[in-house]
Input
Amino acid sequence: MPNCAKLSISLALAISTMLAAPANAASSLNDEEISQAYIYLLGRLYVTRQQQLDFQDGFQWNSFVHRKPGAVDWPNPNLDVAYSEAWVAVDETSCTIVTVPEVKDRYYVVQFLNGWGETLANINERIFPGRPFGDFAVCLSGAQVSLPDDTLRIDLPVKYARILARVALGKDTDGAVTLQHKFSLKATGTPKLPEIPKTPIFDLETFPGVEAFDAADAALSSDPDINPGLEPMAARVREIAAEIKDHPDTRKRADTIIKTVAIPEIAKAGSIIGHGKVSNGWARPGVVGEYGIDYLTRTLVNYRGLWANIKPEVLYYRGGNDASGAELNGDSVYTLTFPKDALPSRFAKYFWSVIAVDSTRFRVLPNPMKRYLLNEATNPQYGADGSLTLYFAAEKPKDAPDGNWLPTPRGQRYRLTFRYYGPQDGVANGTYWPPALIKMKQ
Output
């Protein structure tokens, strides 16, 4: 049986088991049922957390914020691209026009996500090969709105969405920024703007406790889950929220379960990104961008890589251990060698890159050089045999070419994120993993 089928069956059985428990009292639920309800809800809370921070930062509905390259603050940022961000609101009487400039010989994408971090649509030459630029009307499905004849309509199943436009920097940052500012938004009417759900704005170094359930109604009512089969999970979250509101003992028990069961489960699942796989010290997610009933992976991706796109756009591997299984640490020097017949460029139609992030907030590591990634734009040198060796160390190893070295501060545990944009060959079909990281003798 295929792994995805096994996963669907196992998750469906877990959900049906929860339904079999008495529905009128959270105290009658076992620890695992409360833990799973928390993990499910947490995936939504990561998005509402960021939404609140965005609007506190000055976001306005249906208006792009064009970020300077590198000026984003979420886990595992991609510093190869110039980001433009927005929250879009539509309704039965109004669409939003997205104007996309003509982009030649450069990767770009306009991604639409819902309030759970699920990718709803993308705009680029791969999705719209006949006309990949111009005006696109983002509309609520079924909305009766008159649009100009030269506008392509994209229907969404929700009334508001998060937009991320990405334009690859390559070796021409100024050109990317010029293109970035040509992306624009304009509402065709006056949509009813939704209220921003008020949920806990917690630090990413910590997890919310039982107070997460206090925000259950605000989180679930403002943006219902679009995935069929997860209705029982949402119902269970509401039942637990109602019970802990009126029963202090149950509230205390639920808080203990979150800390002693749910959070350790998240930590354990994080090593393989939910239901993913690990090889050579690299973890690859089983699903990303579109999750179906796999709410565990959705929560983990929202935690460590919010706004992830779907696999045909990008696939990433997370490396946290060297060839011996030891955690990566800035006190050591590591090499990552790709043979000539398996260079990163073979597996990425557009571009590849690798960043190092800390193990708590998943932000790029500060260093005096202000170098936060390696890719083709850093001009890595190849060996005489055509291989490529990348170096990760606090100080540049003697024989390392400058463009092959990523600074990793001493005393810092960290993880690597290796991205393949336009995945192909073994990255696309799930048969490839990057080589193991080798710790050098010092």
Notes: The mean pLDDT is 93. The CA atoms of residues 293 and 383 lie 45 Å apart. Residues 31-56 form the longest helix (26 residues).
